[in-house]
Amino acid sequence: MDVTRLYRRRIIPAEDILLKDDIIVTQNDEVIITKWLTLHPKSKFSHGCSCYFLQEGIKVSKIYRSDNSLLYWYCDIVDYSYGEEPGTLTVIDLLADVILYPDGNVVVADLDELAEALERDLITKEQMTRCLRSLDHLLSMIYRDKFDRLKSRLDELGL
Asked: Which of 65, 135, 63, 42 minimizes the C-alpha distance to 93?
């Protein structure tokens, strides 16, 4: 299915946002690649690009400063839901994130929010299970120096 409208669903805080200004660069059955400007102006970064790995539950984003230098790679653990309207895809942020800095530091973030979402019944047991499996898969790739397989999708397009 060709995606023409992307939505981002956040669990904490609860919100659905149409990513109306994101530009879909390419898509196939495995990935959707976009480039974008920040939704809300930020002092640290201004734009980036993302690769949604549709089978793996991972979104890898390359985050840039306003001078086009790389700030970091930001990896969201996500789930996907196709809408009733053709061409509509909602990306559900499952809260767990991994940040990779150019100096090699790796930070796993927002696991406290993930626990809170489970406690408050904001996510299902199945979503928690998918989240943890996708997070484990991503971290295994990073720790075994296989992250290049994920970031290459963006690098090959010059993004």
From this structure: 135
Q: 10 Å Cβ neighbour count for 89? A: 19
Residue-by-residue pLDDT tens, the chain, 159 positions: 688 899 999 999 999 999 998 999 999 999 999 999 887 767 788 899 999 999 999 999 999 998 999 999 999 999 999 888 889 999 999 999 999 999 999 999 999 999 999 999 999 999 999 999 999 999 999 999 999 999 999 999 988
Yes or no: say if 51 and 31 are a contact pair by the CB < 8 Å rule. Answer: yes
| Strand 47-53 relative to strand 31-37, pairing | antiparallel
**Whole-model pTM?**
0.93
Specify which residues 18 forms β-bridges with.
Answer: 7
Encoded tokens for 60: 């890898």
From CA 139, how far away is CA 55, in angstroms rounded?
A: 16
> What one-letter code names the amino acid at 45?
F
Buried residues in 97-132 as b, exposed as e (16+ CB within 10 A): bbbbeeeeeeeeebeebbeebbeeeebeeebbebbe
Joined together, the tokens standing for residue 119 give 């406690």
